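Question (not urgent): is this output format expected?
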Amino acid sequence: MSSLVPGIERALSDKSSTSNLKIEALVFTRLVMASNPPVVFHPHIQALTNPVLAAVNERYYKVTSEALRVCGELVKAIRPELVQSPSFNFIPYVQPIYSTILKRLTAQDQDQEVKECAITCMGLIISLLGDQLKRELGVCLPLLLDRLRNEITRLTTVKAFATIAESPLKIDLSCILGQAVLELTTFLRKANRALRLASLGTLNALLIAYGDKIGSSSYESIIIELSSLISDADLHMTALALELCCTMMKDKRHHSYAGVVVKERVLPQALVLVKSPLLQGQALQTQLLSLLCLGEIGRRKDLHSHINLEGVIIRSFQSPSEEIKSAASYALGNIAVGNLSKYLTFILSQIDNQSKLQYLLLHSLKEVIARQSTDDAGKVDFKGTDVQKILALLFTHCQSEEEGIRNVVAECLGKLAILEPGKLVPALKERTLSSSAFTRATVVIAIKYTIVDRPQPIDMHIKPCIDSFLMLIRDEDRHVRRAAVSALSTAAHNKAVLVKDLLPALLPLLYDQTVIKKELIRTVDLGPFKHTVDDGLELRKGAFECVDTLLDNCLDQIDPSSFIDPYLLSGLSDHYDVKMPCHLILSKLAEKCPSAVLAVVDTLVEPLERTVTTKMKPDAVKQEVDRNEDMIRSALRAIESLNRISGDASSRFKAFMNNVVKSGPLAERYNAVRHESDAVVTGDIMDMS
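Got this back:
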């Protein structure tokens, strides 16, 4: 940033700078600020603030609107954490930013885009800096209320009020709260669907934060208006309306009154909705619905007084319907949450004794474990002995012959590890040395389930030992290798920092999994004919998909040349399931590492030509024909990516384009792919600007 900021300053402040240069500089600044930690910009806030605020006052609306968007990012950067003693002194910047945005918010004769950007920015300022603007709230909040009443700006203002309502600062909205709620309520009957959706979300946020300051009459008006939105004509709208109803009934001050009105106005509509044929699957079957309701009730209230309830649910495990079996599993797990001492013991004993029902019972156990980290409605508090019993059972079933059971066991272990990292991570690491290949594979998959896309306390436990799990990519058993590849892919996608330092050692091992291994190909004798089975296919496919993820998140660790030849070239000649991810990888490499691709473009022609000229047998079924068409389109997308960068670098590729791709039966399909690609590129450019 130290190198970039002077250039940004010059582009915005130099009198010779054109409007287009200023716009590009502002877009760049916004994208950089949105994609990096706020602390990166703290040394440069002073240098950035003055030219950006000056740009807000520019006459050209495109410059002004983009500057307002950058102001929004500045506000997020100067106060990223709403704490009493922030690491960065943001207070000197509050008034200059507020005053500049207020001037734009009050101006009348300006472009619609500028108005909307000013409203959005003011919403961010109030939500993040409102505690430093207590005297000013009496000015800016009525202004926003005025914009809420304006037909042109009301949708943007509705979203701004949602941002303010969700602020942990609990901004004092008393001067406009009642009027804002009234306006939002009237919007629920407007024809504009986007406005109704946004209004439902904002009302929900306001009621959660300020429900005790909103009168009963407003509650009644809201319920009456939203009752007309509950139908199968718009299930998304219905879901938001029902969520708002639940929020109102949870309010301790109004729940009795709201409950009565909901019962009169909303419940009849909800009961009609339950009968709608548009609800997915078999959600209308009364057994199914009863099981789901039992689970929801049991999670919140102890049902042990109902004799043999668990037996009734277990009988539903025998249903021919997979949905009912799944609902029964969910119900049993959630009922156990309401009384762990009774039902957890029952579930564990049944897992050991009912071998045919183990899969469903393990899903019930997974529900129990998952509730440890969810909302307060039925939050579980395990005892130490409970954890020991669960662990003993799960580690026993790591060796199950059924892959489905091992996968559920792994998910249970992963969720439990998130809750008890100090105890579980060493136990999982110890079993990477197990003599059982199934156990080794299961604990690797378990680690995969611990790597989520948000910071967790378990991260500090995993980082020092994750190599013990991922290095099993060189295990002698293909199931273990596949599990390690899957874990690496998840880590690269969710938390690349965990694996970046290991990639120099892991990448050669990963690339080796993309190669066809003859020892994994076997022939099955089916009497009159023989069938070839490739046991390494899924592993190769997974390995290429992992490389695809690494290209997105760890490109700086990858040498594209050593991967393209021979590994990608091999994949482009492999099975259909392998070719598809290889085409995607080739397109990405053409965009991100064009020189490495151009160096071998001649050798890419042969496998691509074989793919796009593949002829199906006359007796091929429709599924085979469709798969082949998908593969050809996929290859043509990769070819178009190469064409964009090739120029005159390769006479062989140029001949291939002219003689094969752009002529004959492929020409029409290639043109369709090319137009599709042009549309995506244009869309990306518009999004950036």
